[in-house]
Amino acid sequence: MKWIKVRLDGAGGVALPEAQLKTVYASGMDFEPDERRLRILPDGVVELAVAQCPYMLHAKLSLPLYGNIWVMAHNKGQGYTGDFVDFVTEAIRTYVFEAQERSVNIVLSPATKAHLDAALEFEHRANRGHDTGENRLYALSHAIYAAEGALFEAAQAKAFASPRSDLRLGCNFFRYSSPNSQYAKYFKQAFDFATLPFYAGRTVPEKDKYTYGYIDSALEFLEANKITPKGHPIWFGHAGVNPKWLYGQSFDDLKQSAREIARHHVETYRGRVDVWDAMNEAHDWANCFELSQDQLVELTRVCCDTLRESNDRATSIVNICLPFAEYVAGRFTCYGSLPEHLRSPQAYLKALLDAGVDFDAVGIQLYFPARDMVAVARMLDVFKQLGKPIHITEMGVNGGIRAKPGSTGGGQAWVSQQLGQSEGVWHGGWNERTQADWLEQFYTLAASRPEIQALTWWDFVEPSFSGNGAFLYEDENPREMFFRLLALKERIIKK
């Protein structure tokens, strides 16, 4: 480990606000975070402990024209080895590099070309001493827009030229009431893949007593409309979804309970539900039973093996959240113990592979990713290297003012929750239009990547987990992104 200095100047050439300075952390080139250890020096320079070399840097900044977002600096993909980084200057270089690299084989749209030209001009003016701090922030904002635009336009060219017949488009299917509802009408227009709720608190409220009333009703509709169902999840260590009878058990008893639940779910619906999230968020984030990291790996093995034994034709998915793992840098968990070193989703999945755990696909959640699309693409590159197909199992961005039901907003409790870790402002502010724009950009990017085999939004109707993030309002009127998805399907899905 060594200490480096990071300069983050804002308008007027003075240091950015302390709240933004405190977000800085280092990671390896694979986004694996170092635990954040920093101090702010009297001149506003951040002194930061770095454990990996080469390293990249991340800071959550408020940028003019863009919003509040995690920004990366990676030295043109090579990383840093030195002891000092001028973060904003290096971030401009990073995103200009990304824009230029991703536009080699395409003609940029006027909008994207304009952003790239603006980034270079504002950087030039800053270097000549004209409003240096402010112009560097404008240059960075334009550079991120340019990099995203180049990525999106290259993905469009690829995805539109080769529509996919193997890409499933889905959503959770948690509030179905009848085949005559607007919910049912709109769902079958948009999707061929549906996630059904198998949370133990709903399906096994008492030991050995299984209740599948909603599942049976929902399956009848899905099967009639040729929509592939997925069971979610076989196991999830979140305090809000587990029945009381599971608590207080020894680890051996807990494994046996998991084995029995998995077997009953899978055998009951064998041939009807053949895709399953075998394990959900078992990487030190949702760990209400306070298991060790080795025990979480072993419990994942139990669920995956039992799924395979109960239905050898089923697809098993290991689902993770917070793929950038900012919680590792900040030492946050949602429920459970706080190990000496938190395990990121990537490290957890590598541990499964090292242990020989048998599963078919990696599931990635992508809520409110306060990351630009280029960072998202680079993160997907990292997970692709695991050698498994990828399902985007849950995602959501909001269509208006952020309002999580029952939340007062802000404070340490909110920061430690999943959405508080990833929440940000994209392209000037969330509304129906930016929500639809985000969906179009990400779905196009995903369609251009053959390793991504399924895209599942969360939720279909309000209230939604991501807060104003569903396709339908409470009255079941559709948001703009519903129609954007229907139009995009015509270009990315082979008929």
Automatic annotation (TrEMBL):
Record-listed E.C. numbers: 3.2.1.8
Domain GH10 intervals: 161-488
Gene3D superfamilies found in the cross-reference section: Glycosidases
Alphabetic keyword roster: Carbohydrate metabolism, Glycosidase, Hydrolase, Polysaccharide degradation, Signal, Xylan degradation
Pfam family, one: Glyco_hydro_10
GO biological process: xylan catabolic process
Keyword Ribonucleoprotein part of the UniProt annotation: no
Catalytic activity: Endohydrolysis of (1->4)-beta-D-xylosidic linkages in xylans
A GO term, aspect molecular function: endo-1,4-beta-xylanase activity
Enzyme superclass (EC): hydrolase
InterPro entries registered for this protein in UniProt: GH, GH10, GH10_dom
Family indicated by similarity: Belongs to the glycosyl hydrolase 10 (cellulase F) family.
UniProt protein name: endo-1,4-beta-xylanase
Species of provenance: uncultured microorganism
